[in-house]
Design a protein that fits this description.
This protein is an alpha/beta fold. The chain is built from eleven helices and 13 strands. The strands form two sheets. It has a nine-stranded mixed beta sheet, sandwiched between helices. Strands 3-2-6-7 form a four-stranded mixed beta sheet. Belongs to the carbohydrate kinase PfkB family.
Length: about 325
C-alpha cells in the first residue's frame, strides 16, 4: 500500500463517564484524541502504510500515546520527545444530544514548539500523499511556519496533498488571521475537505457550489464539501455531484466523523476508486464513527467497512 504522511498533535483525552458540567464530573475514561491521529488510525486499519510527524513530552501520557501508535501500526520514525515541555491533554463532556463540551490543555505543549527546522529533517522519499489539517498552524507561530514548510516541501517533491481545514476558532488569535492562513494553505493543496459551516467562514457562503467555486478559483483541483448526515458535494475538474450519506439508528458522538470521512477520501484516492466509490466509502466511515464515544474507536477495518456498506446498500 501507499505511504502517507500526517503532521499533528495527539492528546490524551479524558471523557466524562457521566453527563453534566465538566467541573462536576468525578470519573473520566482515558483515550486518545487529535484529528490527525484519528486519520492515521483509520488509514492503518484499512491496511495503508502511514507515518506520523509529531512531538511529545517526556511524560506518562507521551508513552501511552507512543504505545497506542505502535499498536495501531502507525509509523513513529518522525516522532520526537521534548525534555522540557509536556504532552497536551483534553477533557470531553458526555452528552446524549448535541456536541460535547471540550476543554483543551495544549498551550505551550511539546508539539506547539515544532518548527520549520523539524520539517527539514523529514525524508519524503517514498511518500505518495501528505494529509494536512488546519489545526497545527493555530497552535503557535512556529507550528504555522512548520505547516507551510511541510506543504511547500511536499509540493516541491510532487507529492499529492489533501487538506482538511478542521477549524478551531478558539485556538487562533483572530478569525481574520485564521481565514487568511487557512486559505493560503488550501491553495497549496490538490484536494480540500471543508465542512459546509466552515465554508461560510472561509469562503463567505454556505452554498456548496459557491464554496467549490471559491476554492477552484484559488487553484485547488478537487473540492469535497462535507454536508454532515446529508452526505457530500463533490467538484472535480471533470464535473460535480451531490451524494447522500448513510443513515444510522443513533448518533452517539459526532466528534471524529469528519476525520473518518477524510480516511475514506484518502484511501479511495490511493486505491484508484472512482470518485463515487470514494465518497461512498467516506460517508460510510463517517457514519460508523458517530455511533461510538471515542474519537477513533469506531474507525473500521476493511472487513467491517465492507460489511457496513453491504448492509446499507440501496
Amino acid at each position: 500500500m501507499s505511504k502517507i504522511l500526517l503532521f499533528g498533535e495527539p492528546m490524551a483525552m479524558f471523557t466524562a463517564e457521566t453527563e453534566g458540567p465538566l467541573e462536576e464530573v468525578e470519573l473520566f475514561r482515558r483515550s486518545l484524541a487529535g484529528a490527525e491521529v484519528n486519520v492515521c488510525t483509520g488509514l492503518s486499519r484499512l491496511g495503508h502504510k502511514v507515518s506520523y510527524v509529531t512531538k511529545l513530552g517526556q511524560d506518562p501520557m507521551a508513552h501511552y500515546i507512543k504505545n497506542f501508535l505502535n499498536r495501531e501500526g502507525i509509523g513513529t520514525e518522525f516522532l520526537t520527545f521534548d525534555p522540557i515541555y509536556k504532552t497536551a491533554t483534553q477533557l470531553k463532556s458526555k452528552v446524549s444530544e448535541g456536541d460535547p463540551v471540550v476543554a483543551y490543555y495544549r498551550k505551550g505543549s511539546a508539539f506547539s514548539h515544532m518548527s520549520a527546522a523539524d520539517i527539514d529533517l523529514i525524508d519524503f522519499d517514498g511518500v505518495d500523499l501528505v494529509h494536512v489539517t488546519g489545526i497545527p498552524p493555530a497552535l503557535s507561530l512556529s507550528c504555522r511556519e512548520a505547516t507551510y514548510r511541510l506543504m511547500d516541501r511536499a509540493r516541491e517533491s510532487g507529492i499529492y496533498i489533501t487538506f482538511d481545514p478542521n477549524l478551531r476558532p478558539a485556538l487562533w488569535e483572530s478569525e481574520e488571521v485564521m481565514v487568511k492562513v487557512i486559505n493560503e494553505l488550501a491553495a497549496k493543496s490538490d484536494l480540500i475537505l471543508p465542512g459546509v459551516s466552515e465554508g461560510l467562514i472561509l469562503a463567505g457562503t454556505d452554498n456548496p457550489e459557491k464554496i467549490a467555486d471559491f476554492y477552484q478559483d484559488l487553484g485547488v483541483k478537487e473540492v469535497i464539501i462535507k454536508l454532515g448526515s446529508k452526505g457530500a458535494y463533490v467538484r472535480t475538474e471533470s464535473g460535480s455531484f451531490y451524494q447522500e450519506g448513510f443513515k444510522v439508528e443513533k448518533v452517539i458522538d459526532t466528534v471524529g466523523a469528519g476525520d473518518g470521512f477524510a480516511v475514506g477520501v484518502v484511501t479511495g484516492k490511493l486505491e484508484g476508486l472512482s470518485i463515487q466509490e470514494t465518497i461512498t466509502r467516506a460517508n460510510a466511515i463517517g457514519a460508523i464513527q458517530v455511533t461510538f464515544v471515542s474519537d477513533n474507536e469506531g474507525l473500521p477495518t476493511r472487513e467491517e467497512l465492507d460489511k457496513f456498506i453491504g448492509s446499507h446498500s440501496k
